[in-house]
Q: What sequence folds into this?
């Protein structure tokens, strides 16, 4: 059982968050409960002093002497293992939030889909299952492998394009590739693709379409083309294609 604490200065937002969480707990059969939901940061501090807690969902700007970042700083000193998730409408706080070993950062308004994705990752992490995840930012962020469509190198940054959102980190393909299972292959100096997500390959213009989404596209580089096509065909991935552009 994971115990959750929620803190937001807006009572309406807090009530909506409670309802979304409880619905996700039930629908996904997650063993969790909300032990405290409050607009007062002082109540969070008092609870932490007397009880253990597993997950904190904190608004950053609490319209109080204490911010969500202040709360996180105090709590981190007492418990290095608690999961901290920040929420805010102020995107400029995003980088500051990760200073406190933040599990995730939810921009407002929070959607049920985005919240559910975060909770599923959190419960998988809490269960100790690591084989189906890629870990980023010194293990602060985890991504389900089967949600990754493709990975793009953009200068010093690496962008993970997933089914629901993009994740950015400063890393290299050399570090990332060893974490990935065999269905991931580098197809270009700037792209790694999840073969199981491919729905169309155009060998004329060397483009790859993923999940039938025109916006989810990556490219095949001349240096990688022969090896990519061999792996694609030998792995029987071509049976999932919806197109006629693919040829050996």
A:
């Amino acid at each position: 059982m994971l115990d959750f604490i929620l803190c937001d200065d807006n009572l309406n937002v807090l009530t909506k968050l409670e309802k979304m969480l409880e619905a996700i707990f039930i629908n996904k059969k997650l063993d969790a409960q909300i032990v405290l939901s409050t607009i007062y940061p002082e109540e969070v501090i008092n609870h932490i002093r007397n009880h253990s807690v597993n997950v904190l969902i904190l608004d950053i700007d609490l319209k109080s002497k204490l911010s969500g970042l202040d709360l996180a700083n105090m709590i981190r000193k007492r418990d290095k293992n608690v999961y901290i998730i920040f929420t805010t409408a102020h995107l400029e706080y995003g980088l500051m939030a990760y200073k406190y070993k933040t599990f995730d950062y939810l921009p407002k308004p929070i959607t049920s889909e985005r919240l559910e994705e975060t909770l599923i990752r959190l419960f998988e992490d809490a269960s100790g299952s690591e084989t189906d995840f890629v870990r980023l930012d010194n293990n602060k962020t985890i991504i389900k492998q089967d949600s990754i469509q493709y990975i793009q190198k953009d200068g010093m940054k690496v962008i993970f394009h997933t089914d629901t959102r993009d994740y950015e980190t400063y890393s290299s393909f050399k570090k990332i590739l060893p974490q990935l299972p065999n269905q991931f292959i580098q197809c270009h100096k700037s792209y790694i693709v999840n073969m199981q997500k491919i729905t169309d390959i155009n060998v004329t213009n060397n483009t790859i379409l993923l999940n039938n989404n025109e916006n989810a596209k990556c490219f095949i580089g001349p240096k990688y083309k022969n090896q990519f096509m061999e792996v694609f065909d030998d792995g029987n991935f071509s049976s999932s294609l919806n197109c006629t552009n693919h040829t050996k």
